[in-house]
Fold:
Amino acid sequence: MPDDRGVTPEESRPGRSSRRTRRDVVADVLGAVVVVTALAILGLDDGGYLPPAFLAAGIVAAVGAAAVLVVRRRRWRPARSGLVGLAALSAFAAWVGLSSLWSPLPGAATSEMQRTVAYVVILALGIVVVGSGRHAGRVVLLVAAAAAAAGVLGLLSRLAPSLDLAPALEPTSGTYRLSYPVPYWNGQGTVTGMAVVLALAAASDRRSSVVVRAVAAALVPALGVALLLTVSRGAIAATACGALVLLALSRRPLQTVVVAVACAVPAAVAIARAASLPAVVDDPLAGEGLSRAGGGLLALIAVMGVVAAVGAVGALQAMQRAERRRALWPSTPPWVPWAAAGAAVLVALAGAAIYQGPIDRGLLRGASIVEDERRAFVDGAPVAGSGLERLGTGGGTRSALYRVAWSGFADRPLAGDGAAGFRVRWLRERDIAERVQNAHSLPLETLAELGLVGFLLLAAFFAAIATGALRARRRPRALPRSLAAGASGAIAVFVVSCAVDWTWQLGFITACALLLATTLLPEGRPMRSRRA
Structure:
């Protein structure tokens, strides 16, 4: 019988505790190796888009999760939100497979079902590796390292062409956008944006070591330039949304802002220099040539990385000292913030009364620009410019894709056209000569292909993740609040990107988001060790 501490006589024998500890250590190492292996398979094989990559990663994840469960002695109680998310994603995969019965492309529908099943297995692997939450921080750092490695590899493939990392691109093709190792520039921008948010979170985490904070801050300039080179409007917007989520969920928003500014200033210097080099952004044969321009830019990025590391570490230490001295937030009467806000409103109204003419002209001009961009988006014409010119326009073919996807949902609102059915409907109803296979929006494509049933199952999965993120904000759980905010911000980058692109089908990026989600779900309640 167990004693008052819940320990059985067998577990209290000499050597039992040490053997249990060794088994737990082996399980922890095995889990980390499996996570890294699965991410490497997906990241180095076309971003995990093709079946050989996501099937191999799914097999590795399934075998690894089973091995960790066998080796690990300590048991735990999975969180309800984790079980709900796993069940919802499993039901979504089953519905995708069932839709092959009415899909115009049953073979492609089966492939999509296999992809989703691989995601289910990867999510289960994350739940098993994280366990009760003890290793959640380690998983976040592993995912952050994988995402940052993808961003840095992409940067080196452009600025150091002698390394011969990426396939050669035609300078005159108009597609000189960074798309390595993820072979799609918007996907490469998304994983780089996730790395930026995670780096800012790690740099502002006071529980992390100085080395971890310094390395995270030093990566921000390099990742910022890599994000620019993708020239991805959606990825840049998604990164901004992720940064806002990071700030909103941080326990100390002012601390996060100060550290982010310390990283952003040197990053802005590197980004501005990169934007001024056509050979780096637009055309490898322009100006000084890519070889000469890339070497100088790499040196500048390295210097700015050191500046960011020193600035971020110093800023965080200065704020900690100020907190200890109670000099940063002195006690003030409760009416002071309201009085300051009222004064700011009065100043704004006075300025508007004095400068009414210029303000009216500026508002009219701004409204005109917004209307022009809205029309460019609705017209659905391809963007004529290349390089940085793309960042100044809202045009593109997304609206045409969205109209066709909505048409599919309107025709069959309950079950949709079946998985992979959008590509057939697009060929039948398109009004522009562009070959695409995806609606470039996960919600709209799900409605068009899987109907309300598939959409609700997918929404339940994301709702479970959102519940875990909000609960982690209210009180400390498996992760410190700074890392939990970073994981939530990186997931927000992924979600926004999925809303405007086909990021969901890039296995490497989706696996990173799924593993990050598992770190937000545990409730930190380890169960009593059981006899083998």
User: Anything to note?
Assistant: The chain has one domain: 19-324+435-520. DSSP finds 18 helices and no strands in the chain.
